[in-house]
Design goal:
Two copies of one chain form a homodimer.
Chain A lengths: L1 E2 L22 H13 L4 E4 L10 H6 L7 H8 L7 E7 L5 H14 L4 E6 L4 H5 L9 H19 L7 E4 L4 E3 L9 E2 L4 E2 L14 E4 L4 H10 L2 E4 L5 H17 L8 E6 L1 E3 L3 H13 L3 H12 L24 H13 L4 H12 L1 E3 L1 H13 L7 E2 L6 H16 L12 H5 L10
Parallel strand pairs in A: 1-2, 2-3, 3-4, 4-9, 9-10, 10-11, 11-14, 12-13
Antiparallel strand pairs in A: 5-6, 7-8
Helix pairs in contact in A: 4-6, 6-7, 7-8, 13-14
């Protein structure tokens, strides 16, 4: 499961059952992580960004702009959860590989092999401004940097062979120097000598997630990712094609395609009846101030749309390439391209496209079809509502999936890799 | 208490009761942290460095070169300890203030007000090599950078006023935009716009520790630190003078000198009798390979002493300024200056000077004299042996100090600040 502190929508924090005053409280995360463990979820994933969205005043007034630094939080959660994998976003644009390799290896030890990381390249200038840059790096440069970053981190994790430590009090040998490797990396972006000051992680390497939908993002995923989050491209056939594309890219890189899991994002809104679920979606829409919807679109389009009336047809020229998140921009462009939608309708369509609205039965239908139909290896669940949505899914949908035999609801092993069906990578030094 | 994973000496991991195979296991830290809580200790401090000491082969063979990244570890410890403060080293030379402000604020929330940080400027070229630099920054440049770093981090912590969040589901107002402050910092080393994406920490600011002994280090401490670790300058009078110097510097900066706590490092070796304690010190010396002692000296002197026979007088010219840790270098220089010590004797003297060897009674005498005699506000205990030394201190010395009425052994409050007797800083915005 994937999440922002308050849930998958800007207005999630206003929903019934939401607990906004607990977003900096470890107990909030512990409670729904344990619910997720009851459902056998493989991964708890903490999405992260490195800025306050203050470009528009509505972003400060109405949006959850506070969150804990994810690795400190995951360190805490490692002690109050038992089985779920613990992963978080790492920006390769605004971090140093030595720090990242250390904290991921540390989390892997502290959690007994449950660590994971989601490599992102960061898309907002706001982040650049907090790290001494005037603007974000260009899209292609960011992806080149990400590739090198991953290579350095993986190299650092291999610094010590798995059997390098002797802990021999008698002879005085703590380690075997012949089993230590210095990286001596010199690349376009990083110069890192190594070695890393922590042993090779229990999983060999924490699980590597990615989400890039652009050509550069897919290429990176094909070369390095072990699981990729995708956004619904619209329809089962398109989802199959996207699935096949990632698998083909893994194969083209000489990898076993089964070692790149494709996990479409899925945001269920669950009702006892379809009508009840639809009413919940209406509520999400109602709880989103117009002004916030406009500013959110302005953010992704990189120009101010707020002077455009909500109920008139919206048809700007969006042909210029964007430096923003490619998948969201492409989705807006498709809707604008239809040529007859007002801003309110575009917003409504964006909202609807993000959520799967239905009963436990119809949601299980969707999951079963995608999973057995070659379009998904699993799903990244992004709940509109926390903790209510997590509880609903575990109580209502998981039993239905078990009944159909498409999901056991049980953990297959003890490590994050085992539970995702991924092998333990060998050290680059053999 | 202060510590390296294995204890305060290079050979600590070989001592009876040491548990080297647990140094990456959270249970190891949890167990002795709980012992420390039984003794009423204010702070658990994790010393940190960003490299493997592989300049000499003996450093790989015989030294503990692995450790967990401290903030991930402290995140974990926040859930398995109740009262002890949780602090760790932060290098201002190889970090970004935005990341550091976030993780310290996060730890402060996750631990309900128990976070602290020890600002260091990093002294080894090995660290520079892991972060894209050819050599460490110059000593004075490092301290200028540290000053600016602290200023930026403290400014970021004040981004949101204490009452900035409304969490008002009804009106849709999550926060009050008028209570958000943008830092817009532009300095010699950092350009950071802000604001920070987490609320002001429960303590206002996590407790700021420092340890610099050089003029630049003392100046920084006088201006910014709330607690300073000192090394014994040799004798009670010198300790008083050092104590007074820090207090005077705080006063000269317009600060209440009581808000800069002076905490001399204290490494007790405790025996039932003095003879037993002395034998333990002999054991520490015996367990240190000669070659490792030589390489350790070479490291701090920045030239190779290993060809010098252990049992001949050692008298090199040490007048050149050093880029290494000033306090250790000065101590070696004093011993060499005596002019009749062999390398073995210098090593022995260095070892002896680092430890206070005695019975619970004589150790309590020392503590009482320094504490009541205006030379210490408390002590940073650095145990030669973990967990044995921690247990001995809590079982044997703490009761003696309580009997004498110089230490209650009780926590004064619930936050790290309260337990150290430090006030909650006000926001720079009022």
């Amino acid at each position: 499961m994937i999440f922002y502190p308050g849930g998958e929508h800007l207005a999630s924090w206003r929903l019934p059952g939401a607990q906004p005053e607990r977003y900096l409280d470890v107990g909030y995360y512990r409670d729904f992580a344990r619910t997720a463990e009851r459902g056998g979820f493989a991964t708890l994933f903490i999405a992260d960004e490195l800025y306050v969205w203050d470009r528009y005043r509505s972003g400060i007034d109405h949006v959850v702009n506070i969150r804990t630094e994810p690795f400190t939080l995951l360190g805490a959660l490692s002690q109050v959860t038992e089985q779920i994998g613990l992963a978080a976003t790492v920006s390769t644009t605004y971090n140093e590989p030595y720090h990242v390799a250390r904290k991921l290896a540390s989390l892997d030890f502290l959690s007994s092999g449950r660590a994971g990381w989601n490599v992102v390249t960061s898309a907002s200038d706001e982040e650049a401004w907090n790290f001494g840059r005037d603007a974000n790096l260009d899209h292609t440069v960011r992806y080149r940097r990400a590739q090198e970053f991953i290579d350095v981190v993986e190299g650092l994790w291999d610094s010590w062979d798995d059997d390098a430590f002797r802990y021999d009090k008698e002879s005085g040998y703590f380690a075997d120097a012949s089993k230590l490797h210095r990286l001596d990396h010199r690349g376009e972006f990083f110069t890192v000598r190594g070695p890393l000051n922590i042993a090779r992680p229990p999983q060999g390497r924490p699980v590597l997630f990615q989400a890039g939908a652009s050509e550069a993002g897919r290429a990176l995923a094909g070369a390095t990712a072990e699981a990729v989050f995708t956004l619904d491209p619209g329809g089962h056939k398109a989802a199959q094609a996207l699935y096949d594309d990632y698998k083909a890219r893994a194969r083209a890189n000489g990898r076993d395609p089964d070692h790149l899991k494709v996990l479409p994002a899925l945001s269920p809104i669950i009702g006892e009846t379809t009508k009840q679920a639809e009413e919940y979606l209406d509520l999400v829409e109602e709880l989103t101030p117009d002004r916030l919807s406009l500013d959110w679109l302005s953010h992704y389009l990189q120009f101010d749309v707020s002077s455009h009336p909500m109920d008139e047809v919206f048809q700007p020229d969006l042909s210029a390439p964007t430096n923003q998140v490619q998948s969201v921009h492409a989705q807006i462009k498709r809707l604008v391209g239809v040529g007859r939608f007002t801003l309110r309708q575009i917003n409504r369509a964006m909202l609807r496209s993000r959520f799967l609205v239905g009963t436990p039965d119809t949601i299980a239908d969707f999951i079963e079809k995608r999973f057995t139909g070659g379009a998904a290896d699993g799903f990244m669940l992004a709940f509109s509502s926390i903790p209510v949505g997590v509880e609903q899914f575990v109580e209502l949908v998981v039993p239905e999936l078990k009944k159909r035999g498409v999901y056991t609801g049980e953990y297959r092993g003890t490590t994050h890799r085992e539970n995702l069906g991924l092998p333990v990578p060998r050290s680059r030094y053999g």
